[in-house]
Amino acid sequence: xxxxxxxxxxxxxxxxxxxxxRRFSSxxxxxxxxxxxxxxxxxxxxxxxxxxxxxxxxFQSSICKLTFxxxxxxxxxxxxxxxxxxxxxxxxxxxxxYKSKVHYDHIEYLNPSREIKRKAxxxxxRMYPMSLNYVKKLVLGIRGxxxxxxxxxxxxxxLICTGIRVEALATLPLCCIDIQxxxxxxxxxxxxxxxxxxxxxxxILPIDSIFTEAIREWVMFLVNRNLDSMHPLFPKAAITHxxxxxxxxNNSVSDRFLKAxxxxxxxxxxxxxxxxxxxxxxxxxxxLHVRLMEKIAKKPEQLKALSQNLGxxxxxxxxxxxxxxxxxxxxxxxxxxDWGEVR
Length: 343
Fold this sequence. Notes:
Radius of gyration: 25 Å
Helix content: 40-55%
Number of strands: 7
Largest sheet: 3 strands, antiparallel
Structural class: mainly alpha
Distance between the termini: 70 Å
Order of helices and strands: HHHEEHHHHHHEEEHEEHHHHH
């Protein structure tokens, strides 16, 4: 791919703008930059200053034909790519040297078709076959009693009992959990990485004693070691040299934080492999957590409490992104309504 030095400079400035004033997470910024890389592939070294109506139309056409591993990319990818490039060009059109070159009326030609927009924004809810019994089997399948075994049982238990996001889970210090009251204080001021840097008070819900006992046992193990309050709640493994051997072992924990996605995913994959079960990502536990809570949270205030426990400011975020009623449940619920009240 040909590169343009001026383009690269502007991209770096935009990246700093997204991370700085816009306060986007590194993960979100990376996704937006990926859209700009697709735009650069299309431009083949041409300057952003040459952007016009024709460029916009041709780029949109090329994105709609884009394939990945032999399959046409989704409407969601097309929509998000066009939106990310459009946001960048609007920002660029206000920069010195670009104000008279990049015009807003030309940028508007990046708007996706109504069909693409409809498909992208009306996604089918994601359904996972993972059940509560699957999670119990996963926890009970860890039969050892090493520090790593106890840590991993607690990680899986925290995921299902709170629905906590993996980035927050990996950055929780010991001082952020109150095991007596079953509370977690997701406090960004203490290094916890929450979405939008929001402070979230989360109750560890008593879904099953298997999980709450695994969490309590692990926390008390750390507390009894008189560790610093900022010690990781879920530390990385400590790799030590085995005596009279050239091999290394890791059955204890260190004083370092886990890397959220890669290391927690590896923990779950390894534990699933041990019991011969399919692997599901940590975020899948969040979906299952909501499904379980929706079965018992019937009143509006109960649903709102569930939503806040997950860190959602808006109840509709919980219901639209995580809540789903199967067709069978939908029919059963409607059949059990008291229709006498409308007669």
